[in-house]
Specification:
Elements (H helix, E strand, L loop, with lengths): L1 H14 L6 H5 L2 E4 L2 E4 H4 L1 E6 L2 E5 L7 H10 L7 E3 L2 E5 L5 H40 L3 H34 L4
Antiparallel strand pairs: 1-2, 3-4, 4-6, 5-6
Helix pairs in contact: 1-5, 1-6, 5-6
Amino acid sequence: MSTVVENLKQDFIKHLSLRSSAGAIESLKVEFEDDEYVLQDLAQISRKNPKTLIINMSSFPQLIPVTMKALVDSGMNMNPQQEGTTIIIPIPKVTKEHRESLSKNAKALFVKCKENIRDIQNKYTKTVKNKEKSEGLSQDDVRSVSEQLKLIADQYIEQAEKMLNDKQQELKGDPK
């Protein structure tokens, strides 16, 4: 469960920043022929100036269309343009709509994290219930362990929710 919360934290850092940066798009997933690739493995990513990112796709020019689609669909408010084997990305201005969009993306990541934590809780609860049948654990022990699992899961969800609230305040520009 702690891994799920840590993954949420990393997703917030990598994918939900007000300013798009080279680091934010390096880990962008690009799908090609039923495989997923990380953008930094396919291209050179650099900063031309403070308001422009350059992606050199000369190593894999056949992946330019799927890379452009991945950039547009990333939710980072990017409008990439192609020039030969180079993709130019003007970094968008930070607008209220962009802030709200990022905030919604943060909420979606939190919901996914919460579902993963509940899945882990349910998996271990089922394991304990199976032990009741196979190893003769008492129903009281099973109930006690199930309640403890729920408490642990709730603590991790609470931690993730605090991270969500902090990130949404940061994205919306609200003072704490």
